[in-house]
């Protein structure tokens, strides 16, 4: 086989292996319950998964092409202790944003065919819809889902001082009346209903009180979040060179880039989609870099009557913002990862020039000091290993695009909160 053909074949094989690995990673063990109550176990394909999907791809085994089900084809499906049931539901689209309240009391209703996620499993279940403008909650009467209605809107009213018209914020809390009817067999919790806000935590507490009142089953099912935010702290050791010539306006001596041993520390934020893309994430790191510094003396000049020389010193620290795309590969309890992106570094500090002159009659010195700030942009890449909340990474950054700084080699330890 020719070398070119071999390379093409190898590339195709690697691409296929990567595709298969990626597809396998997006298969989650689960089940579907058919309309007749029959439960079939297999795999749920969460590729491109969104909250409250309108259809679901189910496979009986990983290599199966699978079958798409919409909310009317099956009674429910589930995975990882999570349960979805589907049908046509009403969605209220009014904004609850402080800067964009509706000015009409009428509900803005839209019908949608989706799977709702069950958050409380009991004889009186509770469901959540997360795709709307705002999170919406539903109860179930028979086979029909009923939207718990809540809306904020502005109403025009006469100002108290009579100076004209103004607006006041009105809340439509119809959901409280709906819950009184829903829990009519337990009048003891009516007072609690009147204090229940339209939040998941308040509703969970209310449904738990009902389960105690009627001594019925209650199971809390945490809603899936298809986005994860992981905060952390980073501490590292780095060796970086910096070219002080770009700082020195006088250019009295051409300096070689100077290596500095540094201790970067800062905060990190990793953004991922654990359901639909569990191996990919965006890794962001903001670090304060310990001081870059250097000092040197010029050779000076001497004559029979005088001696003079210059002394230079540079002292800078920096803030570095690193943004990278990260890919993880799980092996047992460990995750090996590789990431690549861009590092932006903002330098702040000063350089000082001290001029010395000495003769038999005169001896003096003069100091110039300049504060300044600089910016560099350069690529960054690294590999590492993660175990639970702890990770360690080796990272490399080549010479910056402006050739002010670099290369930088570092080891970064990250602890996730």
Q: How does this model look, in words?
A:
With 417 residues, the chain is mainly beta. The chain folds into three domains: 1-80, SH3 type barrels, CATH 2.30.30; 83-222, no CATH class; 228-416, Porin (Beta Barrel), CATH 2.40.160.20. Helices cover 12% and strands 55% of the residues. It has four helices and 23 strands. The protein has helices spanning 3-25, 174-182, 190-194, 200-214; strands spanning 27-34, 39-45, 56-59, 67-69, 74-79, 82-92, 109-121, 126-129, 136-141, 144-147, 151-158, 165-172, 219-220, 228-242, 258-262, 265-273, 277-297, 301-302, 307-331, 334-358, 363-387, 390-397, 405-416. Strands 1, 2, 3, 4, 5, 6, 7, 8, 9, 10 and 13 form an eleven-stranded antiparallel β-sheet that branches. The chain has an eight-stranded antiparallel barrel with strand order 14-16-17-19-20-21-22-23. A hairpin with a 4-residue loop joins strand 7 and strand 8. The longest helix is centred in the first third of the chain and has 23 residues, at 3-25. The radius of gyration is 32 Å and the shape is elongated.
